[in-house]
Amino acid sequence: MNFNIEKLFDQYGYEVLFLGLLLEFIALPFPGETTMLYAGYLSYTGVLDGFKAFLWAFAGTTIGMTITYFIGLKAGMPFVERYGKWVLLTPNKLDKTKKWFNRYGNWLVFIGYFIPGVRHVTGYFAGIIGSPFRTFAAYAYGGALFWCALFVGMGHVFGPQWEGVLHAIEHHSWKLAIGVAVTAIAVWSVRKAMAASRRKKQAADQP
Length: 207
Known about the structure:
The protein is mostly helical. The protein has ten helices and no strands. Helix 1 (2-12) packs across helix 3 (32-45), helix 2 (15-25) runs antiparallel to helix 3 and helix 3 packs antiparallel against helix 4.
């Protein structure tokens, strides 16, 4: 696997991140996290520019998610159930994601990047349930920003130990997802409280 990724980077450079991640979010098999970690490692060695690697990864991720959102929005669940098997959207993945969406709503779009087998389906479901595009984009693009920056950044920071980081993430992905969810909710809560405080202050200042 690592040899194949190395070979792809040798041949195509940054485009591997863009095309690979775009296809992953349409639900085709591609090791997105591995590729971003390796790209971060290449930035550590000076072969790639880390910021450019992040931008290509972010672009591929967000475009892939946007495509799946509009497929879900325009075609609906019957289409995804009928043709999803061709892009590895199994009934089990669909059922699991539906249950998670019922519980967490659009927050699943944000934290789903860190949950194996879920991030490939959340865009479809956001479209299927008719989530407004602005709402979807806020969660999807915010999550993509964090996900891509985290994995490319870890590859750069840990350098030659990037494979060990990958193995640790594979074994503790649920803990990572929970940590991300708690952090995101905490930030959202603080911002909401600050906004409410500002509105209250403005109302008190008015004659």
